[in-house]
Amino acid sequence: MGKDLAISMTATTSNEATASTVNLGPAAGLASKESGARIPLAPEFVSPDDFSPLEVVYDFGNVRREDIEAGPRSIWRYKQLLPVPPNVADYPNTEPGCTRLIKADRLAAELGVRKLWIKDDTGNPTHSFKDRVVAVALAAAREFGFKVLACPSTGNLANATAAAAARAGWESVVLIPSSLERAKVLTTAVYDGALIAVDGNYDDVNRLATELAAEHEDWAFVNVNVRPYYSEGSKTLGFEVAEQLGWRLPEQIVVPIASGSQLTKVDKGFQEFGQLGLVEPTPYRVFGAQATGCSPVSAAFRSGHDVVQPVKPDTIARSLAIGAPADGPYVLDTVRRTGGAIEDVTDAEVVEGIRLLARTEGVFAETAGGVTMACAKKLLETGKLDPDAETVLLITGDGLKTLDAVADQVGPRATVPPSAAAVHEALERGRG
Ligand SMILES: *Cc1c(COP(=O)(O)O)cnc(C)c1O
């Protein structure tokens, strides 16, 4: 995100809709995250004032619980709190959200925690939380007059972008590192958009996307030029958790960190619900989870720094493998302000985390979920998570996408001839 680029983006943005005609519901403008300097709603992501990231600011009306409860069973029940037009649900879209919040009593017992919940976002249309952010980005992009949806991705975003574009009848351009898991390549390619594998890691792909976004002013890169809108989609995770708990906030929440956007927006969702009187603004602590092989935010937290030093990722948790996380500093702010902490875990612990969650709760998470699970365990063991406080773990992606992570460790107990005696014998041996 260089300064030159920011200037050229400003100069070349000329989509069909102009600031005066776009209707993004309660969204009133964009503001620099640092100086607060405002600009009108536009497909921009860098403040012309100070080159820091832009964020959506709102004029909320009177938002009532009853209106939300009467809304659709998707993230659009929160449309009064998102940068989307009032008729957003009338367009064909993937209708993400309203995933399960399950009370995880067996896992809680194993960990020695009193009240534990799993927010199971594997239940989204393309099996990760990315459907939420892409749906909001597409709704805003449509309002700005875009017709091509694009992204650089570590996998889940590729799935979500290609599927959302297919459903909307848009073209898609999806850039992935060529080393991506086979399952994530196939589950993107099947939607038949333009999928391009790039020889390089995610940070290379991301840089390439920023370059292309400046060249192709008719492409909406969900996490680049329309990133301010995209990232607001993560608030719906916070909204749903609070609504599903019976209109109240949890005391602790553990969130995985890739770019860091999700973590900061779950916090923003909790804050907005409090400010609007939808919940009591009770205190809560936000905890972050990373894989040790890509843990720049965890490292900065541990050493007390405000600056996040980029790293070269090396972990099986590829969906979290962003070595230069755009929202890293804001994650540090959120975690420190709420009194939380950030932890990181090895790949072996990630696999153990996946298996622990599957064994105790019947939820099969991808490696990112293993990161959240294993970090929660470590945060408990080190006394940072309070075992007596109500805790929510965000499980953001499905294990079917990262089968290789557990492939060496699980399988049939035995292969037997089709005879009852042989089955009994195998079960006996298993017990022994
Ligand atoms: C993208 C992703 C995240 C975190 O995303 P942020 O970039 O931090 O917002 C978490 N879990 C999964 C499975 C993801 O795909």
TrEMBL record:
Give residues where N6-(pyridoxal phosphate)lysine occurs. K130
Name the EC number(s).
4.2.3.1
Write out the entry's keywords from A to Z.
Answer: Lyase, Pyridoxal phosphate
**What positions does the domain Tryptophan synthase beta chain-like PALP occupy?**
96-397
One GO biological process term: threonine biosynthetic process
Task: Spell out the coiled coil positions from the record.
Answer: none
> Which molecular function GO terms apply here?
L-serine ammonia-lyase activity; threonine deaminase activity; threonine synthase activity
InterPro entries according to UniProt? Ser/Thr_Dehydratase, Thr_synthase-like, TrpB-like_PALP, TrpB-like_PALP_sf
The cofactor required is: pyridoxal 5'-phosphate
Please name the NCBIfam families in this protein's record. thrC
Q: Which family does it belong to?
A: Belongs to the threonine synthase family.
User: What protein name applies here?
Assistant: Threonine synthase
Native organism:
Tamaricihabitans halophyticus
